[in-house]
Structures are given as C-alpha cells and as structure tokens.
C-alpha cells in the first residue's frame, strides 16, 4: 500500500469514521424497491472526506437508482478486507494501491476487460502506463482514481540564498547533485541544513534505477543486480556519505520527525515524494516552495503513486458497481477531485487542463502542470505487477539502509537484494 498515504492517514486514526463491522451482511444494504445500494470501502479518515464525498453526491444525483454506502477504515485496511473476503462479506467496491496485486492474485476482483470495452474507455489517454499497476495476469482489475506520481519539492528561498536556478522539466541528475551540495549548510561543524531528503524508501532510489534503464523486477524475475543499478546505488550512496542527504541521526534528533517535517521547517532544500503534501505545505506561511518533475539519469521517468477502484467478485451488484467506478474515474468526477486538491486526480486529461493547472492552492501559485507532465512520465516497474510488492520493497529497503549506514558496499547490497529477492519470489 502507498507508504506516504498510509503515513498521512495514520494520523487520522482518531478521527470519527464510518466502519461496518465484519459481521455485517453485504445484503443488509441490498435493493430497496428500485434503489440498489453498493458498499464502497477506502482507507483514510476525516481529512480524506473531500476526496470522495462530493463525487459520491454527484454520482447519486445523476444515478438516483443507486445509493453508495461509503465506509472509511482508518487502520489495518488490508487485514479487515481479508477478513471480510474470507467471510464472504466483501464490499462491492474497494480502494486498492500496491496491495491490489495481492488481492487480485487470489481471484478476489472481477476482470474489467469487458466493461472497459463496452464503455469505450480510452485507457491510454486517460491513465497512460498507470493502468499496468492495476492489471494482473493480463486482466485489468481496477480503474485509476487517485494519482500524483513522485515529484520534486524545492524550497525557493533556500535556492535563492544559494544562488541556484530553480529546477526545470529537464533537470538532470548532475544538476540535482550539484544543487544538493550547494544547499547543504554546516555551522560549527554540524550540518544544520541538508540539500536533499533521500533515505532507503524504495521510491527514493527506485525512480532513478528506472531513469537509468534498470529495473527491480522484470517478467516476475528479480533483476536488481545489474551494472545500470550499480551506477545508481553508487551515486545514491556517495550522495549520502558525502553529507548532502538528511541522515538517520538528523531525522531522529527531533521526535516524530522525518523528511516531510524537516522540509516544512526549511531544513532540507529538496524533497522527493508524492502529491499528498501539497495541501499541508501550502498552509505554511513561512514555506516558500514549488514543485518540479523528478531529475533523471538517461530517461525522463518517475515512480507511480496513487490508487484505483476495484469490484469484488463476491459482489452481486457488479453492474451498479461498475457504473460507480466508471463515474468516479471519469473526467467529470476527476475535475471535482481536482477542485479540492486534497489529493491528485489520476486522469491525465484533467491534470493537463487549464482548469487544473491554473488554480491556486490555499492562495498560493504552484507549477501544477508538473503533475500532468510527471503522470505521463510514469513507467511501471515489474515489482508492481505481482503480489510480492510489499515483501520485496521491505527487503530492498533494509539492504539499502545497511548500505547507507556503511555496513555494505553498493555491490554487496545489490548482491544481497538479488539473493533475498529470488528467495521471496520462490513463494509466488
């Protein structure tokens, strides 16, 4: 599941949310006269309501024969869904991200191929390569709903102070590295400001592997130990060892801190992460920032974030459920999502529209065209195409951490990732 969004929603666990107990029969919300009620489950809390409620209301107004029972799960989303599926009490529609492959591999979602064909949905123009993430064994199981690929946040004041030109759409890895060095500030022998965020989280270095022509997984085989990937990990390790990337000690020096928090305080010049920080960051009067596409080695690519909507095979209301997810992912509904900017639409047409790119966020002007540009640059690594995503990324992250802490060389880290990754893949 998307780490950044989980981190955000975990803060909302104490919010008042709706959660139907697992013992509740799906048919408790069955047809009432000519009205069909479908259950729709997502993770999140009160802060995520603007992502869904306005669109659900618009859908129900346009489809008076369908009512949506909207349920939010603030924690243990996967576990609760698995329990419901095991008890044959699955919701009709569920939100999925990287966890979708695991559910799909167990045959829990319907194949959307016929629905997509009958509805003449243009998958390529709507979502580009993002649809690959929600396809298992050649069958699409979800329609992309929330988007926002990995982007670069940068502190304009710190760039100005260091005399660095702002990142462009064509920013190279050499320019990024030079900026990270110039943005790093040392006072009395102590680093008080780092140039970049970095760390072992897989998107922080996996995106550069894809940019350098490498992969983590291809055709259900781990291929991480390659010359292309060694070049990237060597560069990434050097950036950390040279002191230009926030260290583990730096983040641990402040309770409950992290890259997002340190960037918001002006102690990191550049942050690589997803769209979800836009709303919070624009509410900080002292933070003068903007966004840009990810820098690149050889190819202009980025790492995917987001989620999709899938239909349970257990659902007895699949036609109504598809009408709902078709609407939620349509241009009309995605424009509504774009108005709140609590999260990013997934629809490329909406992201590239003047209506989206020209709006202010909490009274601030940002380069929102970057989101559309970056969405078109998404290239899905094979690690997203199977149920092994969570295990592999956890293992790879651990080995990269060992490397950054100086316990492994980049060569040794890649060898260990290859070996342990192959063992993990044997289970699938």
What kind of assembly state do the chains in view correspond to? single chain
Largest sheet: 5 strands, mixed
Query: Which structural class do the helices and strands define?
Result: alpha+beta
CATH architecture of the largest domain: 3-Layer(aba) Sandwich
Distance between the termini: 19 Å
State mean pLDDT (0 to 100 scale).
91
CATH class of the largest domain: Alpha Beta
> Might you state the CATH topology name of the largest domain?
D-Maltodextrin-Binding Protein, domain 2
Number of domains: 2
Annotated CATH homologous superfamily of the largest domain: Periplasmic binding protein-like II
Number of helices: 20
User: Strands of the largest sheet, in order across it?
Assistant: 2-1-3-14-6
Question: Percent of residues in beta strands?
Answer: 5-15%
Low-confidence stretches: 1-32
* Total beta strand runs: 14
**Alpha carbon gyration radius:** 22 Å
Backbone shape: globular
Helix content: 40-55%
List the helices and strands and how they pair.
Elements: H1 3-10, E1 36-43, H2 49-62, E2 66-73, H3 77-86, E3 93-96, H4 100-105, H5 113-118, H6 123-127, E4 135-136, E5 139-140, E6 142-146, E7 151-155, H7 156-162, H8 173-183, E8 185-187, E9 190-196, H9 202-211, E10 217-218, E11 221-222, H10 227-241, H11 248-252, H12 259-264, E12 268-273, H13 278-282, E13 289-292, E14 307-311, H14 318-328, H15 331-340, H16 348-351, H17 354-357, H18 369-376, H19 389-404, H20 410-425
Parallel strand pairs: 1-2, 1-3, 9-12
Antiparallel strand pairs: 3-14, 4-5, 6-14, 7-12, 7-13, 8-9, 10-11
